Amino acid sequence: MKQVIHYRPGDALSVSDGLGYEVGCIEGGQACQVDAVDAVMLGVLEAGELSLSGDGFELLLVPGDCFVVPQGVALNWLPKGALRYVFIRFPGLEGDASHEYPFKLELQGPLQPCSPPAAEALLSPTPRAWSQGGFEQGTLRIGVWACEPYERRQVEPKYSELMHILEGQLTLTEKSGSAHIIAPGETLVVPAGATNAWASEVPVRKVYCILG
Questions:
Q1: Which of 9, 15, 49, 197 allows an S-S link to 80, with CB 3.0 to 4.6 Å?
Q2: 107 sits in which H/E element
């Protein structure tokens, strides 16, 4: 049975689930040059600072930033201080990427109305939802999503998702009965096939990273 991975800042995390992506947490590291990044990466910076630069871009990242590094880009990686970041990597993606260079996600920017959770799964009135895409390549989509409080029954997702909570709180309950209460700053990885139920009593805003 597929299980949900719940990560809180400071936890150790090292996972590769064999579904086309890797998840982990890195502490420290040295400055280096990379000729061609071998995977699309989403990172969530927890501590320290990180400078990414190359031909046509220069990016300074501080704690709380979420950033995307496209596959194939050449860059200079320059950490400062006690660097710590959570990442998810997607090697071998097909299709054209929507971005050529590394960039920061706009976490608090305006969102556009989007489809709410599926009506057939809801156990509460239909909420309003909003989203804004940030990066796409093949079956990978990364962006920001927000939704009013709602509750839904157990469903089995056909896609894998990393969600990093920016605002609000939710409870995700697995098929086994294990309940995860997720607060701002925490990260959840839900593999495809990991049956779960959702309940939120306050609005939630999150970074989403969906494969499939």
A1: 49
A2: none
Which pLDDT score, from 0 to 100, does residue 176 have?
92
Q: How many helices (H) and strands (E) does the chain have?
A: 0, 19
The radius of gyration of the chain's CA atoms, rounded to the nearest angstrom, is: 17
**Looking at the predicted structure, is the pLDDT value of residue 167 above 60?**
yes
Structure tokens belonging to residue 151? 């509750």
Give one DSSP letter per residue of the chain, joined into a string.
----EEE-TT---EEE-SSS-EEEEEE----EEESS-SEEEEEEEEEEEEEEEETTEEEEE-TT-EEEE-TT--EEEEEEEEEEEEEEEEET--S--S-SS-EE--SSS--EEE--S-GGGBSSPPPPEEEEEEEEETTEEEEEEEE---EEEEE--SSEEEEEEEES-EEEEETTS-EEEE-TT-EEEE-TT--EEEE-SS-EEEEEEEE-
Q: What is the pLDDT of residues 126-160, one digit of tens each?
A: 999 999 999 999 999 999 999 999 999 999 999 99
Cα dihedral angle (108, 111, 138, 193), rounded to 10 degrees?
90
